[in-house]
Design brief:
With about 220 residues, the protein is an alpha+beta fold. The protein has seven helices and eleven strands. The strands form three sheets. Strands 1-8-3-6 form a four-stranded antiparallel beta sheet. It has a four-stranded antiparallel beta sheet with strand order 2-7-4-5. Strands 9-11-10 form a three-stranded antiparallel beta sheet.
Length: about 220
Amino acid sequence: MKDYIPVLKRTKLFSGIGGEDILTMLSCLGAELRTYKKGEYVLRQGEHLRDIVILVEGSLHIQKDDYWGNRSILRHIGVGEIFGEAYVAPESGALLNDVIAVENSVTVFFDVKRVLTTCTSACRFHNTMVQNLFFAISEKNRSLVQKLEHISRRTIREKLLSYLSEEAKKQNSGSITIPFNRQQLADYLSVDRSAMSNELCKMRDEGLLAFEKNRFRLF
């Protein structure tokens, strides 16, 4: 666990808390390190969750497959991001989606009751962490609103432009790298892969953008 303190220190949950203090707090928070190989399930639809989770190595997708095997990718999870917080309230019910490792990954599970309740040792940074959790959830809601904005566009081109434009703003550059391959991007935007690829080629021929694998340059 100690090897991942520098990563935890950069997360929103532990913002403003020093490395030594984080190390002291881990046992208080019931922290548990778990590893997954590429393609393994971190969480499955139907499970009940009583922890919040931070990814400290690798990358994950929150996704859902329907009865016929059609896949929708709801969100990409990168290193340092929190997930699972939407299901830890007593009446939240079972998970509606799967969380799958896109590459070999490592997570830290935190007992939500210990996170929200000041421990007997009265960690001096516990209140800061609870406040950080609130801000992290607020930011997560904002990202969900952004995705709704992308997929609510009428055409594939409009969806692509909305998503790529937002990524360019986030990365502060017209040359960007996205966390999806072609199929994953189609699943994220809820469009057909072949139709999306055709549209990308048209946009390239029209001089709107250039691309190679998951790297794009917007003109």
